[in-house]
Amino acid sequence: MNRAVLLPLRWLVLILAAVVSLFPIYWMVMSSFRTHEEIFKYTTLSKELFLPVHWTLDNYREIFLDPSKPFGRYIVNTLIVAIVVTAAGLVVNSMAAFAFAKLKFRFKRGLLAFFLSSLVIPYEVIMIPQYLLMRDFGWINDYRALIIPQIVWVFGIFMLIQFFSDVPRDILDAARMDGASWARIYAVIVLPTAVPAIITLGIMTFLNQWDSFLWPLVVINEEKKQVIQVAISSFQSLRGISWGKIMAATTISSVPILAVFLLLQRYYVQGITMSGVKG
Amino acid sequence: MRGYRSAIYEKQESRAAFLFILPAFVLLAVFIFYPMLHALVISFQNYNLIAAEHHFNGIANYRKLFSDETFGASLWHSFYFTLVVLPVQTAISLGLALLVQKKFRGVGFFRTVYFVPVAVSFAVASTIFRLIYNKDYGMLNAVLKGIGLPALDFLSNPDISMLGIIVLCIWRAMGFVMVIFLAGLNNIPDSLYEAAHVDGANAVQRFFLVTLPLLKRTMAFVVIITTMDALKIFIPIYITTSGGPAGSTSTVVHFIYETAFKQMNMGYAAAAAFLFFFLVLIISIVQLRVFRTDVEY
User: Fold this and answer.
1) Which of A260, B34, B170, B186 is spaced 20 to 30 A from B15 at the CA atom?
2) For chain B, how many structural domains are there in total?
3) From the list B36, B141, B253, which residue is nearest A121 (CB)?
4) Beta bridge partners of B46
5) B125 and B173 together in one domain
6) A122: closest CA among B32, B289, B62?
7) Residues 6+ apart with CB under 8 A from B250
8) Hey, are the CB atoms on A104 and B179 less than 8 Å from each other?
9) Which residues of B, range 265-284, sit inside 8 Å of A by Cβ?
10) Residue numbers of the domain that contains B8
11) Chain B residue with minimal CA distance to A130?
């Protein structure tokens, strides 16, 4: 084939793939601006199928005003859980990573192997005993069940170890000679050099928590305490709820995340790449 | 004096290290390793939360699993899903990566656009596709009818409902895998392509003789994580079809969820989870061996 055919073909594929990538999101946003009737009305290929005829914000108003499904509450619940897990996770995981990457101590290799061996344990296996544990602790329907078991993330520790390894040990020893404690060295010297890694891990943790579904589904049964993803799925089992409202809910839950994600995608991509290429 | 001081330093360093690791260690022990052992114990018990009894019953759970047709079917659905997703998704993602690998005007735009679905949660993606697939007013059927094809009931026809879920999963994951491939492609030195070019290799030959062999490590990573994730598919099943119609989309994790948290049969579910864990582990090990590579560049 010659270039005259290949080049337009290439652009065709590029654009087609872009349309496929964006279309479902476009569909979600457009449906959220439609009235209840409109979604059922236009079912043939026409302009009306792709653009709302009577734009409306009612769906958004209604999901926030429905007292039986307090959508604002779900957002706050999820934000609290996600922020606390992210903050606590960054502290706990970076501390462990610092020790593994830079400090000398007995049983280091054994401990690291112990940590890494947990990576092969699939979540689905420990979900059942974790649930029983939460019952014994009295944490069912309690945010502690959503937060505390989620803090430690061995993949995150592994990623940070690779970043921290680049900090020269000489600097740490010099600080030590000057009388700085290890806690101070960790906080003042090591952490600031790893800001990109911390941001990467922070975004990944936050997104994981924002998207978390199976675990909240299992441990939270009380309507008011539910997190956003499970709440959205439970909208669909209600009779008489309109798709417009469901799409308004999904739009609110994903568009802010998309915006943040696009701003910080460089860090996220870096995280994936590191795990894929070095790991 | 010096030796004495450094001995103190070493001791302090050791102590500091343990304190740094302690919080992560405790959390890991309590919430990952203890449950793992507990799961093993429960899997040998008749443990039902409704009957509020649990007693040891040996390998009865495992024996029952081998003759349980529902479990067998769910296992097959997970594997069927994986067997389709793995080659199709890998090929599409690699194709996208090759398309946007070289710099051209607008390359950043396309890379970002392909990556956007990764930021959409599984629950939201499943919900959107459920609307798009709807038989009566879904967009997909409107288009099919518009171009003169018969309408398809994607989520309640047992023959094609799994395909509907497969498409949605590939849509959501392809950008993620593309990024991994891009990183792998960028690691291949240009000099190798130039050498191949000088030797007279055309684009297709360069792909099969240079790109693909040197992408082996990235490919191994992609294949292994895709397999693991695909075998564990749950959220789209739960949201779009709840395992239906007629159990035709129930996967292993869906089976485990139903058994543990609907029937409250913890022992049986734990046994199923363990059996599944070993299957996944064996598959990963085999894949690692297959992809073991000595290529250095």
Assistant:
1) B34
2) 2
3) B36
4) B55
5) yes
6) B32
7) B70, B73, B74, B77, B237, B243, B244, B258
8) no
9) 266, 269-270, 273-274, 276-277, 280-281, 284
10) 2-42
11) B35
ipTM of predicted complex: 0.89
Q: With CB atoms and an 8 Å threshold, state whether B127 touches A236.
A: yes
Do B139 and A258 count as a contact with CB atoms less than 8 A apart?
Answer: no
* Full set of structural domains in chain A with CATH: 66-278 (1.10.3720.10)
- Express each pLDDT in B95-144 by its tens digit: 999 999 988 888 889 999 999 999 899 999 999 998 888 887 788 888 88
The string of DSSP letters for chain B reads -HHHHHHHHHHHHHHHHHHHHHHHHHHHIIIIIHHHHHHHHHTTEEEETTTTEEEE-TTHHHHHHHH-HHHHHHHHHHHHHHHHHHHHHHHHHHHHHHHTTS--TTHHHHHHHHHGGGGS-HHHHHHHHHHHH-TTT-HHHHHHHHTTPPP--TTT-TTTHHHHHHHHHHHHHHHHHHHHHHHHHHTS-HHHHHHHHHTT--HHHHIIIIIHHHTHHHHHHHHHHHHHHHHT--HHIIIIITT-STTTT--HHHHHHHHHHTS-BHHHHHHHHHHHHHHHHHHHHHHHHHT------
